[in-house]
TrEMBL record, chains A, B, C, D, E, F:
Lineage: Bacteria, Pseudomonadati, Pseudomonadota, Alphaproteobacteria, Rhodobacterales
Pfam families referenced in this protein's UniProt entry, alphabetically: Asp_Glu_race (PF01177)
Family according to the record: Belongs to the HyuE racemase family.
Name under which the protein is recorded: Hydantoin racemase
Keywords annotated in UniProt: Isomerase, Plasmid
Keyword Isomerase: yes
E.C. numbers: 5.1.99.5
PANTHER family noted in UniProt: PROTEIN DCG1 (PTHR28047:SF5)
The UniProt record lists the keyword Coiled coil: no
Gene3D superfamilies: 3.40.50.12500
InterPro entries hit by this protein: Asp/Glu/hydantoin_racemase, Asp/Glu_race, Hydantoin_racemase-like, Iso_Racemase_Enz_sf
Species of the source: Sulfitobacter dubius
An MF annotation (GO) of this entry: hydantoin racemase activity
Length: 226, 226, 226, 226, 226, 226
């Protein structure tokens, strides 16, 4: 039986969705259909808290339409917008790019450095790690100071590398996380320049969602202690 | 000069807004006008993550209308919906009921027990404490298993007290936090029955907002490290 | 191109290897060959620290023979024996059952309860979580008080369930982890009785190893800060 | 009814008490009398652990004289001398400058940088944060390398600013805390130069004490778990 | 050369000093003279924060008299009164009973349960552990609900054992700490009844002070980062 | 009665054993015989995880031969190989160099900087601190980039000092730990150059083992919670 995983890009930039689709390509197999969709109602990029908060409404609307239509969902944005709400409304597993990748680093037994778009993201990322009890696996979080639009320009690689090297040299990062799903296209270049693994959150989250499908690890009902 | 603090109740239940207004009453003085408003577009109560997420849009719309019109804002809901977004869009201080109260407990040098509406809230509260780096001040979080509607019924006090006593006896709580702004009316009764302080998040958050007005502690721009 | 993942059961009990093979079966596909092997030189079960320590030598010898012969390795034992040494000696990704599962729980945004064989395992598990910076995701760890041999007996389910219910009711566990790869056969029964996901460490670790193969996330060289 | 809050400066330097009185001035209103007193028996400044320890005796003696005479007390010194003892002996709320300010930062959802007088204070501040479970909200603590006497000299501002900029640039501080109540007079200048809020511990602690008066949050009896 | 270690009992109860002297007896050897003294100016027992704070003055006075007269000092009280001040004023090593014992448990790789006199001590002990960064080694802290005077009565053993068994059974304590130096005489009985080690803080702290003498580990000057 | 403590150097380099014997010399007295042995079957130095893992087998064999023959054992290697296994198989106290020294720093109320041989050791050290719940006492861990063989060369002191000064100046270390027992011979020089205590793990661990002999603190049986 073929299972269906939807990877939703909550921003409306098609190029990012295409990059995500390339990133998860290796995971596709005869039993797993991965459908990468663009949230048409989303903003061009999710840079601010407001972007992250306001996109949840459209995401929920979108998810209503996919109810009963998929076996798991990945929200492919490093701000994990709407992940808890989608878990609550759907029985199927839901994974967010950031939470999934931080957990994966824990599984590797490493400390991670996160490359962020803007310095404003750093506090948001740290809060998300704290919320998930994963602060202990963060070596550092540094900004490349680029916009989502800049990521379409090949020159962005130099800014990403500068942040990468500081994370490795000053913060002791053993692996790197691309702190925006739109950075996907630079993962090989950063890995090759730094010599350490560069985790692509879209692929990692999609893989974990696939695991949940295979293991029937549906979203647990909240509230174990009654 | 009179300063203006708005306390917004993000659910649409007027009774809750009235209770909040009573709770913050002592803080009003000749220099401080506290305006307690009900978010008409909000849900009847904020019980689920979806409630908390979807109310942010209406909150932001509401805040646009108050721009330049107030000196600080308190979101009087223990799920702190939209707090980060409001901070981002407004220059003025913004405080959320939960974060403010947890910080206040830290200032008291105590460990707190939180009385929650539903067991589903417990994980959300713990995540919020982790996000703020305040996990260390929580003694426990236990559910009274009541709805927002139940809070209008005087019989709810017994359920709150059962949770309160377990927090004190089993978890070592030194102060109690009412984990829903609609529980405000029971604060005196719970304090008197348990003999320890029972913090009312609306009052605590409003006081902290007032402090920020006095000290000109505007919301800091995100991203100190550039 | 077909990739090859070896799952090594470091104890010599064939039945456990067969159960592991059943557990990872859903992950097999036309591009991924999963070879579950039994470490003939291992002990019957890994219950003590001595068992966990002494099996590393045979594991390393075994891994020497597989060098260049596989794309990733999973050590399917909740004590993660030899994982760091194998990472050091091999370029390919190596995942251990415990570390992988704890990280996966972090990715789910949950708190986990671990069902252990013996009370002696609890301290070892807590130390492992601390070493990986993952203490924050543990709700509790309780012993079922069974031996590896007992796990062959269907009556063991009652003991596992007793631990499971205490983890849920007293510790607030939202998902359960089977703290021994030999408990795999009970995962469906425990999930169905408790109504929450029961993670099978063999499947979770194998999935993460597969992700690493797909993403080319080789083991990072130790020592980022020079 | 007018309530009475006493802010006690535990060092004997009148200039510091005057600065504190200016700092808390905005909080005064028709219902709140704030009486800033100098502890005549205190040392000229509290720089060492010995200073902090030996001042507790005179503070307790002083507090005996104020028993029944006030509604709350603030110890306006960033070493929080005697705070726990005063809480124990008095029914009324007692707040210390450091603990209050750290909690306030948690309420703001920020990470704070502390500007200390001397490097010897740093370890003491970190220990105090750890004792209160507030380590998670500290971004850093750096010394301006000034004495209490230096603070009377306008040239001290440059040293404070140097520490401030390092806290922001290297440690990621989002708000700053003046780690000595005698630094109060520089708060506006540091805020204006750095562009981020600079918390004045005297004002913050006094505001929190006022909240406790309003909410009747008396000091809880120690020992919830019996 | 004979070295001289002074163990100061900061309460004035001679019986406690005698018990401490018996506890440290095994450490005495031809090169080490251990002088157990009673602080005549101390209170009968140190039960409250006020007791702990007010005894620092007399302790400092006493220490002035011993300056140049000893090679190390142990403050034999589980509230560690004055330890930081004595470190500051003396070049020689100074160890406190609580901090030393918590560190020793960390060295054993265990989690400890603390038996406290009164429930009021529990919060103080937790704060002390947090201040030293040692929260992670505490399994629990439970009160035996006895006074220092009660400790002279053999019947106290039952109360200590009740706390001990709860620490083991409910909190997972692997070793026990006597949370008052006056409990010393019961250490063998509690160890024999529970079957796990019962640490005597006086002996542990004295041994660590001896280590510091041998290794010339004088109190470090505060303020490494300048 | 003379007690017998064995300090086992798990590497086969005799020079290191001799240095260790010199380091623990001050602890020897008429009641304590300290026997420093070299593990003939060990590697020349323990630099890698593989070294640390593979030496456990020979260590266990060696310990079998010493059963009933000693009152306590110290494993004098900063990777603490086999410590948990030896604890499990022997009733007597067993201390490892790293765990003991980290606990000792906690007892001193300080933050420590660790000087490591190679950058590959840093992650291993951090994991060990996390496993023991002692992360909170680490200021930093920096590599001197030397081999065990280099330690025989007096020129190594410069590399150690460079790491030492960075730990003090950048990480705020108040005491230093020699992160390899073979660095023992440089302890005085580093202490004298930096002006802060330099802890020798062999001496610290041996002293703690002696304490355990005196207090009869045998290794606790694992598994308090049944």
């Amino acid at each position: 039986m073929t299972r269906r995983l939807i990877v939703i890009n909550p921003n409306s930039t098609e190029r990012v969705t295409q990059d995500i689709s390339v990133a998860v390509e290796p995971l596709r197999n005869s039993n797993l259909d991965i459908d990468c969709q663009t949230l048409a109602a989303g903003p061009g990029g999710i840079l601010t808290q407001r972007d992250a908060d306001l996109v949840v409404g459209p995401l929920i609307d979108w998810a209503e339409g996919e109810k009963g239509n998929c076996d798991a969902i990945v929200v492919a944005c490093y701000s994990d917008p709407g992940v808890h709400s989608l878990r609550e409304m759907l029985g199927v597993p839901v994974f967010g790019a950031a939470q999934a990748t931080l957990g994966y680093v824990g599984a590797m037994g490493c400390k991670a450095g996160v490359i962020s778009l803007r310095s404003a993201s750093v506090a948001r990322h740290n809060a998300a790690a704290g919320a998930a009890g994963l602060t202990g696996i963060l070596a550092g979080d540094r900004t490349a100071d680029v916009s989502v639009a800049d990521l379409g320009d090949d020159g962005a690689i130099d800014k990403l590398l500068r942040a990468a090297h500081e994370l490795i040299d000053k913060d002791g990062a053993e692996v790197l996380i691309l702190g925006c799903c739109g950075m996907s296209r630079f993962s090989r270049a950063v890995a090759s320049e730094t010599g350490i693994p560069v985790l692509d959150p879209s692929l990692v989250a999609a893989s974990m969602a696939y695991t949940a499908i295979l293991g029937r690890y549906d979203t647990p009902p909240r509230g174990g202690r009654t």
